User: Fold these one by one.
Assistant:
Number 1:
Amino acid sequence: MPSTTRRSALLTATTALGLVAALALTGCSPSAKPAASPSGTAAAGGTTSTPVATPVPTPSDPPTPVGLTCDQVLTADQLYAFNPNYGADPGYAPKDGSLEKKIADWQGVACAWLNQTSGDVIEVAVAKPPASELEGLKNAAITNAKPVPTYGVPPTVEGYFEPGTAGQVQVFRGGYWIVAESPAFFEPGDAAPLMEPVLGNVPAT
């Protein structure tokens, strides 16, 4: 039977081993991880900025479909009376960035006729743009072109002509915007015989 001294030593050793084990367990415990920082791009001052999409301005009111075909804008008889060398241009498509393309995008009608002899093309496009856009279109026309009273009586009809490689006509009547363009239009009078029947076919309001 162990003596009292030995029992005391065993007790002391057991206590010491328990303390060592406890300390070992404490030392093996995982340390706390730092909190994850929110993702984003740091801006000046340490704040996080979020990209914001820039809205694209749109007209406050929609365009009105014109509901016209090219044969209604200019009939075959009217085209023949203007110049019998012209016929429909089946491969025509308005060019990107042109006024005719804008008219087509606004649910208007864009037409073209080809001179079988010279190869000149006459474009005529008709739209009923958003009412909120009309004043801006008229301001642009008077800035870039000269007023022409022979297309109609102002202020009921506002006509403009801009010379160039292809002379360009713009006419405003009621809510309608009419554009005609061709290398055959050297001066305002060249387009007048064509604009008369076109204006007769397009509704007045």
Number 2:
Amino acid sequence: MGNTDSDSWVRVYRQVPEGLRLFCFPHAGGAASYFYPWSRSVPGDVEVLALQYPGRQDRAGEPHARSIPDLADRIHTAIRPLLAEPFAFFGHSMGAILAFEVACRIAREEGTGPAHLFVSGRRAPSLVRHEELHRASTSALVAEMRALGGTNPRVLADEELLNLVLPTIRADYTAIETYRFDSAPPLSCDITAMVGDGDPKASVDDASAWSRHTLGRFDLRIFPGGHFYLEDCRAGVLDAIVSVLSRVRQDAGSR
């Protein structure tokens, strides 16, 4: 199963003593380093921790996880020692589902959970679609990656680099395309769903359906752009996150 200790799974690019921890879950094919710029852009009272899934970058020698439940179980085990309240989750695309599934595990097993869940670029777990891109040819998979953005074009144009990342991409697509929601009860934490107005993978209605998965407050933020709208809209995305986390800190301080 590979390592399950926090050091293997979590990257902390800037330590903030007693800061509110924002755990960031990357997209399919993504790595913890995707969130490195965030750690340099958020206020000093927010500590950005990014998940590093096996099979990429410094974990390239480890076998890929090919199911969301398995990956969520392992992440939950790894981050449990780091869950000093309050904390929050952010996940983009596949990462949104992983963040949700880990939050469900924490709620079920520990009776608590993140103070806030941010989900981005992904339809709600209860919306099922049949997708088979993980079985598609390499050319079809590369075409999808090129259309969605989020992957360095230099990687897609270099056959040697492409051959290095394709196993990771295919394994992640296998995990997310075979995922089926297991009817967990709604979370008690507030949820903010974020989506690009031109995202071919998640419509505004798809993002709105996340409201079914919380007993708390729900907010929908729509940004201009496609599946990786958060690259061109990073400042707006971070402003929205920081605004919410500021309220979380105030609420925690008033208890």
Number 3:
Amino acid sequence: MDKPQPPDQDLRSRLVDVGVDLVTREGAGALTLREIARRAGVSHGAPRRHFPTHLELLSAIAHRGFTELAGRVTTTLGDGTADPRTQLAELGRAYLEFALENPGMYELMFRHDLLESGHLRLRDTSLPLFGLLVELVGRARSADDARDAAGDARTVAGALWANLHGIAQLWRWGSLQLATGTDDFTPLLRTALDAHLGPEAGR
């Protein structure tokens, strides 16, 4: 007996919900239109009423990931009164924890084809997070340091982000634990901040 189909007005959200659950459980490779439709209890052609292309559905799923990450960062930073270096450490920890707890979603979120496509204005969701990183990097660096030009702060923030991304990926694979002999990424996060910002004052 066929499963009852959800009302059309609810189908869009249902498909995204199913996609989020699927990427969480099985990874980005499992996100086919046919499999999402099957798990949503609709025909394999039904998703195209709301998502004409596979890329648009993947973008909607990735948007959920960026929204959750942004919410975590906002909660972690609180009222923003901590010094910039402390906020960067907190942001880095929130980023790494999200990446390690949600590997499938994390992989999906940073697919270049999704961000480049412009679907659902993903760049409007992802770039403010990078903008916050740039702002904190600029504030954390010495005011009388000639390297503090905005363009350079952006470059340093990009390098720090790449460092965090590498830590997340290698930690998920178990490579860093094996190489460093530790089960805590905190020293790696601290060292990454020191490498890009200079040693913390008083340490």
Number 4:
Amino acid sequence: MSLHLLALDASSSACSVALLRQNGADRECLARYEMTPRAHTRRLMPMVDELLAQAQITPAALDAIAFGQGPGSFTGLRIATGTAQGLAFGLDRPLLGVSTLKALALQAHRRFHFRYIVTALDARMGEVYAATWHCLNDSVSLEQAEAVLAPEAFSLPEDETDWVGVGSGFTLWERFAATVQVSMSQHLVDMEPRAEEMAWLGADDFAAGLGQPAHLAQPVYLRNNVAWKKPA
């Protein structure tokens, strides 16, 4: 299979774009990442243009577009969704929304080979966006559903697994329950979601036929979904 998939993300203080190119079993990913607080609108499309120029392709060569659908910054999610929708409408290409928390888990797995990961992003108002994942061989499986909740309300599955926490939500480390803290061997607060992992995840979703029309794409805010439960 031949594939050119563009991914973009503006869910945090960072702004990032990535281009995954596949030819048969061979895959490569070009990526750009910038810390651009309050400058996502100004930088996102120029970064896309720069990346396509580097790859020496035009937008018409793209087969699909992935974007960080959330959770994350409300403003950033709207910017990423609107930009992705605009590109998809203009090119008549499918869209793939990718969870920022899942992309963060994949990043931690690929960089550090962590297997049992808690991803948590600062949701402001004293809350975090959080989920737990099992990662193996670049595959990411959801363990506990994504939710927004106070750190004190977060809990882990009842097993003896050695969990690792990643994401800005762990700047609130002292507010997590003692039982959660003792179950984590470490926590890394300086990791943000990136378009690079969204490209890898989006390519798998595209191969599975999960692309959708541009008008159906929606950000995932989670603010009105506070349940913390294991998925069915």
